[in-house]
Structure formats: structure tokens, C-alpha cells
Amino acid sequence: MAIIGNIIKGFIDLTETVLSDPNPIEEQKEVLKELLSKAAKTTFGETYDFNEISKSDDIRKKFAQIVPYHDYNKIYDEWWNRVVDGQENVTWPGNPDYFALSSGTTGKKSKRIPVTSDMLAAIRNAGIKQVLALSNFDFPADFFEKEIMMLGSSTDLRQRDGRLEGEISGISASNIPFWFRGYYKPGEEIAQTDDWDDRVLKIAKQAKEWDIGALSGIPSWMELMLKKVIDYNGLEHIHEIWPNLQVYTSGGVAFEPYQKSFNALLGKPIQIIDTYLASEGFIAFQTRPETTAMRLVTNNGIYFEFVPFKAEYINQDGSLTDNAPSLTLDEVEKDQDYVLIISTVSGAWRYIIGDTIAFTDIEKAEIKITGRTKFFLNTVGSQLSVNKLNDAVKYLEKEMDMKIPEYTLCAKRYEDGFYHSWYLGCDSKLEEEKTANLLDNYLKQANKNYKVARSKALEGVKAHVVPVKTFTDWSGANKKKGGQVKMERVMDEERFSEWEAFVANNS
């Protein structure tokens, strides 16, 4: 009998029962008040007169009028560079102990994002809320006695001028509470292994000693780890070594493109729970099994705003125009794409996180990630967001009965005009001309702007098929493998030329 599991499950069920239903709109009003109050005496707060904003009849409207949007480059050049240099009370009281090195989509230069003690507390609180929400999934009591494999970046953080630096998954894992360490795998020693391939090999060697009930990590790197465990131990599927695996907590990117290839590694279906943990904070998580949408964490140190995702508001580099309107939680509409804007207890102010989202349930503040502002493909008027590109790849998988977990593309100029040049990661043979026609026809039917573009400046689609390993090798060549590193779905022509040269040299 799972005595400890029954105790934990009973506590979770009881806690969820006594908690009242949240009011996200009112929670957000309180969060903004608290942020303005706590940061009023910082240099940023004094520059934009947070005290005066707090006296306004409508502080949300006044806040949006006074404080400008910031992408990373703007807030770093104007503010965070001082934080990195050691100045105190710049955008948040005191000085952070950590900086999250944001790999995000693969690039050669990491961003340094402050992680304050308030943010670490907020991340822990959101994690507890997510655990409490497991009562909605009706897992058996013995599930709560199983171990959890958290596949993030290395917890061997680097010292820099008295502060520690690393990816947010490594920072979070290095701050796990003592009572959780018995459940946490791969354990502190392996988690500190900096080299990704070495770390995964160690996991594969020890896998048979663990009783894993849940997995957590980015899909592309989780797949590679599972494949390594399967191959090293001579298995057909992962449930042969971890028979009690019941949950995978995905995060950082949409899971759908990986669904087919991920499921092929399993011996039986498991519950997928989506989580939205970014370098800037714990933003949302899935709270119930009947939807894959995630509930915004509206009472935990992050204030949200939403800009309609329209071409006239988006600059070529993914930043926003100065006149882009922002909406509050009580002004948004269902099934519309928005650029997500956050203000946080780490001193990010009206910060463009780079993701686009859509609401699936406004009353519950539930969202889905629909793409990236920088991955908005609009070079020749096609206006394709990542969710439309993901849908096209999912259609391909179904039509051709193939697994295509990775892709990237560019609106590239050839001698006869612009084409959407796709590279698809697939370990099976695909007929490239047929693949290009399928993509082209699907997008013409699914997106009116694409159809119009095809009648004007866009000549068509070119498709190239490369092994899935090419994408992970590219990530490894540009950044460290694993952790928060994600593949660019859309590239500009300069970046794409680097990609094509890499593919040519590694084919």
C-alpha cells in the first residue's frame, strides 16, 4: 500500500478543495499595485514616477501610458547593463544573486536576465500550485511516491563578479527544496555535468536503478535522452525500464510537432502536462486534463499585458512599434493572437518576452503558445505565424505517415524570385517535390494571406529533407546542447545561409 503517496494525494486533494476559485482580473490589479509599490524607489521607478502612477484612478491605463515597451536589447542597453555591472536598485530593489543566460532559440550570444530572490520565490510558489493542481488529474496514490526526471541545463552554475549564471532550468534545479531531493533525478551529481552527451550517457547507465513516474523538460532534448536510455539498455520502448512512467511535463515550446515521434518511444500512453517556464519567470501551467491549454499564473509576481498580433504593430526584428496598443486581461478576446508583455519581480518592465499566445478560456485565463514574434514570416506578405507552420508540418506527418519533429524555413530570394525554403528533419525518405506541393497547397487553403502572396511576390515552396540529428548538431554547434535551447523555426537570409552552409558541410 502506498502510505506516503496516499498522504501526499490526500493533502493535495484537501488543499485544492479549500482553495477558492481565483479571480484573475482582480489578482492582476493587485500584482501591478505591489510591483509599483516595491519598485517605487528604484532608479526605474523614480524615472517613470511609480508613486504618481499608483495614485491614478486607473493605474493599469496610466502604467501603459507612461512606461514604454522594452525588448531585451532596449532594457539591457538602458537599464540592465548597470545591474550586470553591480549597481543596486536599478529596476528592482537590491541586486540579483543570479542571471539567467537565455539560450532560447539558438543564437551565439546569450542574454543575461536578472533572477532576483523574489523571482525564485515566485517560481517555487508556482511550482507548488502546479503540484496542487495534480488533484484534477486523478493519479493513483502510488504515483506520488515515484521519482521525477527533470532534464534541464547543468546546475554547475558559473561565478561572474560575485553572482551565479546559468540557464533558468539549472538555476531552478539548484534551488530545489530539501524535501524534494529524494524524488529528483538524475540527482545533483549528474545534474552538475556540463557536457550534455556525457550527462545523458550517465543517465542511461543508471536508468535501471530508478523508478521514474514523471518527466520534465523540452521535447527535443527529452526525446534524445529517452532514445539514449532505450538504445543503451537494449529496449523496445521506455516503459520497459520505467514501467510506472505516467506523466510528461513539457515546456518552452509547443508539444504538437513532437507528439508523433515522442509517442513512438512509449509503451503506453501517458499524460502530457504543458508548462510555460521562461527565463523571465514561471508564466503558466496546465491545470486540468480536459484541455492542453495553460492557466496564467496571475497572482505571483508577474503582471501581463497583451498586444494584438498584427503586422502593423510588429517590427522586422520582432519588437513592437511605439503605437502598438496593449490590452489588459479583461479586454482580450478568445482565439486571437497576442504578443505577450510582462512586468515582473525581477525588474522587467513592459517586457516583450517574444512569444505570442491566444486565449482558449478567458474566465479561467487559459492560454496556448502560438508562436514567436521573430518567427512571424511576413517577408512577402504571407503573414504566417508558428502555429500555422506547425499545423502544416502536422498535416505533412498525417498525409505521408512520417515523423517530422524538427523544421526550419526562410523566405529566400532565388534568381526567379522569393520562395519559402523549408528544411524538414525526418529520418525516413521523403520525395521533396511532393512534399513542397503538399506544404504549398495546405498553406494556400489554411491562410488567405499566404494565398494572396502566392499570386504576387511568392513563387512557391522548396523542400529539403535532412536527418533529425542535423538539427541537434546545429544547436550544439551554436550553443550548448540541452536545457532551454530551442530551434529557430524561421530564419532571416543571413542566418539561413549559415544554416545551409552547416548542412552542406555535415551531410
Automatic annotation (TrEMBL):
Stretches assigned to the GH3 C-terminal domain: 389-494
Occurrences of domain GH3 middle (ranges): 297-363
Lineage top rank: taxon: Bacteria
Pfam families: GH3 (PF03321), GH3_C (PF23572), GH3_M (PF23571)
CC per GO annotation: cytoplasm
UniProt GO MF annotations: acid-amino acid ligase activity
Protein name according to UniProt: GH3 auxin-responsive promoter
Organism: Flagellimonas ochracea
